[in-house]
Amino acid sequence: MAGAALLGTAGCGGDSGESGTQNIVFSAAPDNTGTLQELIDRFNREREGEIQVEYQELSRITGEYRRSVISDFETGSLEVDVIGGDVIWATEFADNGWIEDISRRFYTDYPQNGPDDFLGALINSVAWRNRLWGVPWFSDAGLLYYRQDLLEESGFDAPPSTWDGLKQIARQVAEESGTRYGFVFQGAEYEGGVVNCLEYIWSAGGRALLTTSSQTSPSMSPAQPVELSPNVVEIDNPRATEGLRLERSMIEDGISPQEVTGYRELQSQKAFFDGDAVFLRGWPNMYALAGGENGQVAADQVGIAQIPVAVEGNQSYSCLGGANMYMNANSQNKDAAWEFIKFMTAPEQQEFRALEGSFLPTLEALYDDPKILNQVPVVELARDIIGNNLRARPSSPDYPQISPRMAVRFNDCLSGDLSPEETVAVLQQEMEKLLA
To answer: In the beta sheet, which residues pair with residue 324?
Structure first.
């Protein structure tokens, strides 16, 4: 449905008006902060008579958005010039020749150190076969939100560092405060459910796939992207099983409602900011919802912490999320498209979205910006997480085939239809078959 809507309205892609104005089309998921449309309007005012951008809003659900874009790529009918897409799309789109290699433009046009201006993990998300295929637009990292006011009322002066600690605190605080749920997260059968489950697995010291590199120099800079390939499936192991057990225990122990098996971002954030949950696993831009018109929870009632771990001493990991700017390889207005990409990823625009929408910047220097650090506390915490705790999903053209199987089986396990042991055994076989 989204693809049909796109084709019906994207007629201006690649056109130039009589005045010489270049019209480009930009597609992205909906933005409930209003910051995206504001920046597009700002660009159109600044470049009036030269370049004008039409914003095509596609599905909020990443999988639906991706299928829509791919359908049009495969038929050759996509008229969009610039795509604001998931960080995991770069390798698949590049491998199929759908997006433009922007390496030369990147090194030429970005100030100071080119790709080194950006956080290394984010540059690697646009790297494939030693080329750059996009520009990091905004970043995401999994965070633990909690009701700081309720924890303090129950005598807790710090958030939990382990999942068992979270269950203990959530149960007590929920009972004493009359809050409906202890913990809500994204457990539905979609990419967000995969991300949540991977964080449980990683927190227990496990992995689903071993990502190896053909270039293993430890001194390699972000400006020298590595080629990554998930060529070893290793999900059938006790640590991954323990991660799945921990996630399922949230429901079995009464900390999370059974309905969380169908929760995506909107349902989980609504439960938390409506005052119905003590803890929330969420993304940084959710912080902007605190104190909103329809919510019950103010910003000064909210605390933020890193994702808990299975056992004290384990490494906490947050899954890399966010979006990159990709250029359609068939765009007829590549120079104009590049001007728009540069504008949207420039420091001024990234600062605006951080301040007004709690979007994490992708430029390293902005994590030392006093204005951002003072006004958006989530950015300061995310700086430490991005530096030490961030882990990406496998960067490979194979990932889009693997992820849907993980989404189904992880949801089966969370729903109680499969045991953790059965889940890892089934996934080991299915993923090995897909990779073969």
So the answer is: 85, 136
- Rounded CA-CA distance 82/62 in Å is 17
**How would you class 33 by CB atoms within 10 Å of its CB: exposed for 0-12, middle for 13-18, buried for 19 or more?**
middle
Phi, psi of 116 (to 5 degrees): -70, -15
- Identify the three-state secondary structure at position 273: helix
- Which of 360-395 are b and which e, b meaning 16 or more Cβ less than 10 Å from the residue's Cβ? bbbbbebbebeebeeebbbbebbbebbeebbbbbbb
Helix or strand (DSSP H, E) at 63: helix 62-75
Region of residue 55 (phi > 0: left; psi between -120 and 50: alpha; otherwise: beta): beta
Q: Give the tens place of pLDDT for each residue, 369-402.
A: 999 998 888 888 777 777 678 888 876 778 888 8
Measure the CA–CA gap between 251 and 136, rounded to whole angstroms. 36
Phi/psi at 166 (nearest 5 deg)? -60, -45
The residue written with tokens 């057990």 in the block is 245
Q: Which pTM value belongs to this model?
A: 0.81
Compute the half-sphere exposure of residue 56: CA atoms within 13 Å on the CB side of its CA: 29
Report the DSSP pairing between strands 143-147 and 302-305: antiparallel
Q: Is 419 left (phi over 0), alpha (psi -120 to 50) or beta?
A: beta
List of domains in the chain: 2-140+320-391 (3.40.190.10), 144-319+395-435 (3.40.190.10)
* pLDDT, tens digit (0-9, with 9 covering 90-100), for 61-100: 777 888 888 887 887 656 899 999 999 899 999 999 999 9
Spatial separation of the C-alpha atoms in residues 228 and 232, rounded to whole Å: 12
Q: Cα 68–261–385 angle (5° rounding)? A: 80
- The residues pairing with 128 across neighbouring beta strands, listed in sequence order, are 131
Cα–Cα distance between 164 and 249 in angstroms, integer? 10
Closest CA to 77 of 151, 129, 42, 25: 25
Nearest of 73, 93, 50 to residue 340 by alpha carbon: 50
Q: Are strands 143-147 and 277-282 parallel, antiparallel or unpaired?
A: antiparallel
